[in-house]
Design a protein that fits this description.
By secondary structure, this protein is an alpha/beta fold. The chain has eleven helices and twelve strands.
């Protein structure tokens, strides 16, 4: 089966992806980071007209690669209070957002950090990360885009974090939107990476009536096929670039041999067994016949049988970032790990066009 979108591509190839028509639907990106979701929308034929990002260093990378019409480099808390926004932003087709998610990550402090104001890398200013989702909804309430898309980590659906989901749904509804959410797996969407993310799909109430099949038993929601992806998994051996990459440190040799011999990915298991403590939990062995593990902002993927870390070509393929992307002076793994894989967003954007915007257009005829 051929994949709908390429995992290996270049910015110089242009947009949209081969075989996809331009649709002229307008998107604005919040928490844009390096532009993972922006590239996804462009691959799917959309026009991304601007962005909001707090981190000046990351924003420079975004501008270098995407040349936006509108750029707001500031906290969303400041951005949502602006009264000088152009009229075009009040007529958006999609407002897209990926609020920072470390508060809900399974490898973070979770509940211990909720409600606390802390200093984070993003912009080096004090923020309470677990409330940024609600600041986003405040902006959506003001701009009233036809559709709002918000993405976050799997941990948002687990444990006490589910209370946040209830609040998110409540605030979307109070803002005039039908909202639903789904946990999606990138490895079923043509992304060579095991990455699970929660997507919230919100459609303005006056438009959602066109998107449902009134004859269906489930006429109060988008059809199940909206969320169904079944592209073949892409194994690491299909994206491997052998012979290149930084060799692992000598201190990792024993853990490497243990993982290789026992077909174990997690280096931390070796240290749990030998030192009775968990460390190096970010160091993961990638086997050729497996899908690459989630790319994180501090990626320490070790390639089995090669005793080296993942190289740039492999990292960009696994992240579905273009091979000619200009990272300026930002580390590739940091930016890719913080970004939504472009192909993942492209797949969602394609469904939004088919199941929402096309239906709205048909319904208004």
């Amino acid at each position: 089966m051929q994949h709908l979108f390429p995992y290996e591509w270049n910015l110089k190839d242009g947009y949209p992806a081969k075989g996809i028509e331009k649709n002229n639907l307008k998107v604005f990106s919040c928490f844009s980071c390096g532009g993972g979701s922006t590239m996804g929308y462009k691959l799917a034929g959309y026009d991304v007209i601007g962005f909001n990002e707090i981190d000046e260093k990351i924003a420079k990378v975004y501008i270098e690669n995407h040349h936006p019409k509108y750029a707001y480099i500031e906290s969303i808390r400041d951005f949502k209070l602006r009264n000088d926004l152009p009229e075009e932003l009040y007529n958006l087709d999609i407002l897209d957002a990926s609020p920072p998610c470390s508060s809900f990550s399974l490898i973070g402090n979770r509940e211990a950090d909720w409600g606390k104001e802390k200093k984070f890398k993003e912009g080096q200013c004090n923020q309470v990360l677990d409330t940024l989702f609600f600041d986003t909804i405040d902006l959506i309430k003001t701009l009233q885009p036809k559709v709002a898309i918000a993405e976050n980590v799997k941990g948002l659906l687990l444990g006490k974090a589910q209370e946040y989901v209830k609040k998110i749904i409540k605030q979307f509804r109070e803002s005039g939107y039908h909202v639903e959410y789904k946990l999606l797996a990138a490895n079923t969407m043509g992304v060579p990476q095991n990455r699970e993310r929660v997507f919230f799909i919100a459609v303005r109430n006056d438009l959602f009536k066109y998107c449902v099949d009134k004859k269906s038993l489930f006429s109060d929601r988008l059809p199940d096929s909206f969320y169904y992806f079944d592209e073949p998994k892409i194994l690491f051996k299909e994206i491997i670039n052998p012979g290149e990459g930084k060799p692992i440190q000598e201190s990792l040799n024993n853990a490497y041999d243990f993982c290789l011999k026992n077909n174990i990915s997690d280096f931390a298991k070796y240290y749990e067994m030998t030192e009775h403590k968990r460390k190096r939990f970010n160091t993961i062995m990638i086997f050729p016949n497996n899908v690459c593990s989630t790319i994180t902002s501090t990626c320490e993927h070790v390639i089995a049988n090669e005793k080296r870390f993942i190289n740039k070509v492999e990292l960009l393929k696994a992240s579905t970032f273009p091979q000619d992307y200009n990272f300026l002076n930002v580390k590739e793994d940091y930016l890719c790990g913080m970004s939504v894989p472009p192909v993942m967003t492209a797949q969602i954007a394609t469904r939004i066009k088919k199941y929402i915007f096309d239906k709205i257009q048909e319904g208004k005829k």
